[in-house]
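Q: For a teaching handout, I want to show students what a protein-ligand complex looks like in token form. Below are the inputs, and the small molecule is zinc ion. Please produce the holo structure.
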Amino acid sequence: MFRRRRIRRLRPVRRRRLGGQRPPAPEPVRNAMRLFEQGKFDKAADAFDNLAQEAEEKGRLVQAAHLTAQAARCYLQLDDVDAANERGMKALGLFKQAERPGAARRMGERMARALKDRGRRAEAEALERELKELPAPSRPGMRRGELPGKCPQCGGPVKESEATWVGPSSAECPYCGSVVKAE
Ligand SMILES: [Zn+2]
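A: Here is the structure, written as tokens, with zinc ion included.
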């Protein structure tokens, strides 16, 4: 499209990341997403746990948070509510550290509902208390085009509200760090 090409020509130089850190390869994330889709939740949980830890060690907190939340989803599927709750709380902390209160709230609300559904009222209420402490989310910025629903590299669900915009029409995948182009 004309508009997209023009924007590309205006910004020929790729943005350099702080610290020169390259994004991780998307393949391991794609594999984990695939395991989840295939219903292999135990393997997917391990994969997401490992990827989250790696991301955290590299200081990529947003990715670490989203990957930890994916691990929590796996444990819910496995009915391991303790492990899911632990990952949920961990993801909440990472989202807070990464200053993403909006994503923290959405994840936390989903987790609280899941806990209640499984009769874990005390844990759900503890989580809801944590959510009340979160700062109010800032107003979403200017709309910068429509993102594809899934990352073309890893297949992870990309939500516009949780995207990190890295250019006028490109955002970073919250799972694998690939640049996703808006349309
Ligand atoms: Zn991705």
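A: Two things your students might notice: Helices lie at 2-10, 27-37, 41-57, 61-77, 81-97, 101-117, 121-132. Residues 5-20 have pLDDT under 50 and may be disordered.
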